[in-house]
Write a structure and sequence with these properties.
This protein has 283 residues and is an all-alpha fold. The protein contains 13 helices and two strands, in the order αββαααααααααααα. The chain has a single domain, classed as Orthogonal Bundle (MetI-like fold), CATH 1.10.3720.10. The radius of gyration is 23 Å and the shape is globular. The two termini are 41 Å apart.
């Protein structure tokens, strides 16, 4: 009993945190999803499966497909940009490594909404990007950069690329340099050594970074609203609108549960892949 009490004392704060801020909200969302919407909002406590059937409406499926596409493109670009960045940071001296890492996380010290508005200043017809292109004589008229899907991807990429760089940097920093030396001694050129040694050893970090970028990108609603001008709806916008505008809490809760289920499956796949890679490495 004493040992059990000690364990509960250590686990109590964490379990309490998860219960209050995750289990209880999820239980409420689940309970909302099985009831009906009132005529003027609110809930009618009569069980129904209609909310789950509405998930397969082509209108909502199109929003989900668009969200997955934009989050996927953002994740791929974050990987293509983040891997070389993380690799370059590992080659710096300790002093400049610290400077680079601080510069990487520095934007997180600024409010997310302010950073998103900064992109409006950059991409607007009278913004810095169009002014620069016009001044250099590359264009005659301002380009319409805002309120398009590439603007949404740019905003998401800027917001979440550090979440890709940090796990990759940690994995590359832990890697034993003697492995690359051994590959070079066996006649492997730098490119061959990278794809045969470095990249396979960092695959778990690649999967982790992809999850870290994909998950918040999928649920983000601020960037599509501001940089997309509300013309491209993502899942986060749809859930928000169901709760705050349509006042359809049951269907909003059902959408939220569907997103949570998708993310749980994604996290399970990431964990399975990491275990599989770790098992292959031990073998």
């Amino acid at each position: 009993m004493r040992r059990l009490g000690e364990r509960f004392t250590l686990l109590g704060p964490g379990l309490g945190y998860l219960t209050v801020l995750m289990v209880v909200p999820l239980a409420l969302v689940l309970s909302y999803s099985i009831f009906q919407r009132g005529r003027f909002g609110g809930l009618i406590y009569e069980p129904t499966t209609e909310n789950f059937a509405r998930l397969f409406d082509p209108l909502y499926l199109n929003v989900v497909v668009t969200s997955v596409k934009l989050a996927g493109v953002t994740t791929i670009l974050a990987l293509l940009l983040g891997y070389p960045t993380a690799y370059a940071i590992t080659k710096l001296t300790p002093k400049w490594k610290t400077v680079a890492l601080i510069a990487l996380v520095l934007p997180f010290w600024t409010n997310f909404l302010i950073r998103t508005y900064a992109w409006i200043v950059l991409l607007s017809p009278a913004g810095l990007v169009n002014d620069a292109l016009t001044g250099w004589g590359l264009i005659d008229e301002p380009l319409q950069l805002l309120y398009r899907q590439p603007a949404i991807v740019a905003g998401l990429l800027y917001a979440y690329v550090p979440l890709m760089v940090l796990p990759l940097y940690a994995a590359l920093e832990r890697m034993d340099d003697e492995l690359l030396e051994a590959a070079a001694n066996l006649g492997a050129k730098p490119a061959r050594a990278f794809f045969s040694v470095t990249f396979p050893l960092t695959l778990p970090a690649v999967f982790t970074g992809c999850v870290f970028v994909f998950v918040p990108s999928l649920g983000n609603f601020v960037v599509p609203e501001l940089l997309g001008g509300g013309q491209t709806a993502m899942v986060g916008n749809l859930v928000r609108d169901q709760f705050l505008k349509a006042r359809d809490w049951p269907f909003g809760a059902t959408l939220a549960l569907a997103v949570v289920a998708m993310l749980v499956v994604l996290l399970m796949l990431q964990a399975w892949s990491a275990r599989r890679l770790a098992g292959d490495g031990d073998a």
